[in-house]
Design brief:
The chain has 197 residues and is of the alpha/beta class. The chain has helices spanning 2-12, 20-28, 71-81, 99-109, 121-127, 163-181, and strands at residues 16-17, 44-45, 48-51, 60-62, 66-68, 91-95, 130-134. The strands form 3 sheets. It has a 3-stranded parallel sheet. A hairpin with a 3-residue loop joins strand 4 (60-62) and strand 5. Helix 1 (2-12) packs across helix 3.
Amino acid sequence: IAFGEDLRSLDDAGFAVVPLLAVAHWVCAGRRDFNDLSPDGRPVVALSCDDGTDYDWLDLKHPAHGAQQGFAQTMRTFHRDRPQHQPHLSMTSFVIASPSARRQIDAGAMGGQGALNDDWWAAANDSGLLAIESHGWDHNHPTVSPVVQRSQRTGDFFSIDTFAECDMHVRASAQFIESRAARRPQLGHRPQVAPPH
C-alpha cells in the first residue's frame, strides 16, 4: 500500500522516476547536470529494493499480514492509472546470489516463507519494470553460516577486505546471477562507463 502511495506522491511532486543504472552512469561520468537523466527538466529519483524477495515480483500471501501486492504489480497499476506520467518507471532489485544463503536468510529472518527464489529473475529483467542487480554472494548476513568473510564476522560489508572475499561478492555473484537472470548485473560492481572529462 505504501509503495503505491509513494509512487503517486513522487509523481504529484513532479519527480521523474529513472533507472538506477542511469544514475550510476551519470555519477561515474562526473556529470554536473541532470539533462541526460531528465530531458524535460523534472527532478529525478531512482527506486531500489534490497535482498530480492519474491515480494519484489510476485503477489503473495504473507503468513501474518495477508495478501501483499508485489512491487511489479504496483508499478503496473500505476501505469494503468497514469499511463503518460512515468514512461521510465522501474525499480532495481539487489538480489543475493547464493541459494544456500537465501535459504538460510529465509529460514532465519523471514519465518521460513520460501520467498527468496531466483526463478523470477529473468522475467523481471525482461519486463523493463524490475532490473536484477547484485547484492553480493551471501549478504554477509548474520543468519548465514558459513559466510565468505574469512573470520565469520557478519552484519555489514566493511569486514570484506581480501581479494578472495571481494571476488566472491563481485565476480562470482555476478556470474551466478547472470546464469539465472539472463543478464549480467551491472550494479554491485563497477559499471562500464567513460571516464570523467
